[in-house]
Amino acid sequence: VLVVCKRWFRIALPLLYTCLFLSKPKHMKTVARAVQSDPQLGRAICHLWLEGGFGKELYSFMKLAPNVETLYLILQATSNDLIAGL
Question: Residues of the signal sequence (predicted)?
Answer without folding.
Answer: 1-23
